[in-house]
Design brief:
Length: about 150
């Protein structure tokens, strides 16, 4: 009986690309679930769970991302100040006004693993509210998603 071995990827060997994603008219949750696969490296055949083998991701036009249904009014983001009774709540509509990148960043943060590996992955994520970004020197490749059924 022959024994086959699977290869384990190493972070130093991983070739990382810079990917540019336009969030204009994209649904926040669906976009986040697609981006997390590239951020974690699950799109690669040599994906290893304990190694950060993902790509750098630049998201532009995050202010023009959408929610489906009535989530802009009903979805609530909570945070706590650390003091007694210090819960602070914010609707998605107000969150977009305060920081247009917050809903997408919050959705991706919930999908990233917690701990050192997750913090390292989060540093490779660059989200901008407008179409300008300062990463043109990295020559990012444009990443598009073929699902246009939910676009309005």
């Amino acid at each position: 009986m022959s024994h086959t071995e699977s290869q384990s990827a190493e972070a130093a060997v991983a070739s990382r690309r810079w990917l540019l994603v336009d969030a204009k008219d994209q649904v926040v949750g669906r976009l986040a679930s697609r981006l997390i696969a590239y951020l974690r490296g699950k799109h690669r055949p040599c994906h290893t769970a304990h190694v950060d083998g993902g790509d750098y991701i630049i998201v532009i036009n995050a202010a023009e991302a959408k929610f489906t249904g009535t989530k802009t009014r009903k979805k609530i983001y909570h945070r706590h100040t650390g003091w007694v009774g210090g819960i602070r709540s914010l609707t998605a509509e107000k969150a977009f006004e305060r920081d247009p990148t917050l809903p997408l960043r919050h959705a991706l943060h919930g999908m990233i693993p917690k701990g050192n590996l997750g913090r390292h992955m989060e540093k490779k994520l660059k989200i901008y509210a407008g179409s300008e970004h300062g990463h043109s020197a990295q020559k990012p490749q444009v990443l598009t998603f073929s699902d246009t059924a939910m676009r309005k």
